[in-house]
Specification:
mainly alpha; globular; single chain; 417 residues
Length: 417
């Protein structure tokens, strides 16, 4: 009993401390001048970082994944097999050796193939600009839904622009900003009761990157089973029609070679999924146990709760999809930026200042945590490098807490009436 009382007292003191710190922090940030100065400083930091790092990337001398899109699209336009290794083509065009291969669904290959009509450097710059615009527009649209002040909006955009996941995405020139944009559009349409249109945005996202299929399945309590089934059928239609256009052999290669090949990345330190976490400890049992337990938890939680608010449900299914997907790279974490904004700006969180303070700390961890932390000890390397996965788990728990509070309030109001 004494130990329980001491633990309760310490938890209460910690909660009070976090509340006081967060109130002071947000009071300081509420000053318009402070917000503008911070925004300008962060934008300057982004410009310096971009001027130093981006020239090393767009000339093709850094072996990252943009060649997969460029040469994969080139093969599609020329009617050649898409999913073979690109080593010889990359060496002939760019002058460096790297074993890369297209690994994205046929729909992605088709959508990005126009880039192959440009030179490699031109294509790189064009997509980097498009990606930056999509990212900033996505963050702007989320913030606008909560009617934030102009100075707060500017600071939000500056913080997002300088966050490590986006800077890493821009340096490697991946296309997940398009997935983010479609995710945000789907959420906005669902908020405005355009349910089929919202789900269709998520169908397009799933056609680009398969794991957003979990967004569609996870929205069953929001839109009903019939609309979810319609959305899944629309996904299958887009998937197989795009497979027909790239060629049946390419489609078979993607299904039976490329997807199974993703196992090569299980246990890689920069892959923050639950499966990868278990494999990093060299334990398949741990990996699949974590995956199965969390999947069962998600299913039970999904069907046990009342109709959730779309804001929180969107956050939950986004985080769930990242944890359950076998691949969750550092750049994928841009997809949780809207979740952080919802936790900070929604009316449900305004009364929970201690929670907002914790969310702000978690956001800072995502903002600047290194992709990989190498130490002399494998255990500490894994634990420190997988901190972003821990952040995802914490954000999930806090979002679920707010969602449950909101559901209980709604039930009590209905009972009272």
């Amino acid at each position: 009993m004494l130990l329980c009382a001491q633990a309760t007292n310490r938890y209460y003191l910690l909660k009070v401390f976090m509340k006081q710190i967060s109130e002071y922090f947000f009071t300081v940030l509420d000053d318009q001048g402070v917000k503008i100065l911070l925004s300008l400083g962060l934008i300057l930091l982004f410009i310096i970082s971009a001027s130093v790092n981006l020239p090393l990337a767009f000339d093709g001398t850094v072996p990252y994944d943009f060649p997969n899109y460029f040469f994969g699209g080139k093969r599609f336009i020329e009617g050649r097999p898409i999913y073979d290794y690109l080593e010889s083509e990359v060496f002939q065009a760019l002058g460096w050796h790297n074993v890369v291969y297209p690994a994205d669904p046929p729909f992605t290959v088709i959508i990005l193939s126009p880039l192959a009509l440009l030179s490699y450097t031109q294509a790189w710059i064009v997509w980097a600009l498009i990606s930056t615009i999509l990212f900033l527009v996505s963050i702007f649209l989320v913030a606008r839904e909560f009617s934030v002040k102009s100075s707060t909006l500017l600071l939000t955009l500056a913080v997002a622009l300088t966050a490590k996941p986006f800077r890493f995405l821009l340096f490697t020139n991946h296309f997940e900003t398009l997935v983010l944009f479609l995710s945000v559009l789907g959420w906005i349409f669902l908020r405005r009761k355009y349910e089929r249109l919202g789900l269709f945005m998520w169908v397009l996202a799933a056609s680009l990157k398969l794991f957003p299929l979990l967004w569609i399945v996870g929205s069953v309590r929001l839109v009903g089973l019939r609309k979810v089934v319609e959305a899944l059928l629309a996904f299958l239609l887009i998937f197989f029609v795009s497979g027909y256009f790239v060629g049946i052999e390419n489609l078979k290669t993607f299904l039976f070679e490329i997807i199974p090949r993703s196992q090569l990345w299980y246990g890689v330190i920069a892959n923050y999924s639950l499966i990868s976490f278990g494999y990093a400890f060299q334990s398949k049992l741990l990996a699949w146990s974590l995956e199965l337990i969390f999947a069962l938890w998600v299913v039970c939680d999904l069907y046990a709760q009342k109709r959730p608010k779309i804001d929180f449900q969107w956050c939950l299914i986004t985080i769930e999809s990242l944890l359950l997907s076998p691949l969750c790279w550092w750049r994928y974490l841009i997809l949780v930026f809207p979740c952080i904004l919802i936790l900070l700006f929604s009316k449900e969180s305004k009364s929970a200042s201690s929670l907002k303070g914790i969310v702000a700390v978690l956001a800072l961890l995502i903002w600047g945590w290194p992709e990989i932390i190498n130490t002399s000890n494998h255990l500490s390397t894994v634990v420190l490098s997988f901190v972003p996965m821990g952040v995802l788990c914490c954000l999930y728990l806090f979002t679920r807490k707010l969602a449950l509070q909101r559901t209980l309030i709604s039930v009590n109001e209905r009972d009272f009436l």
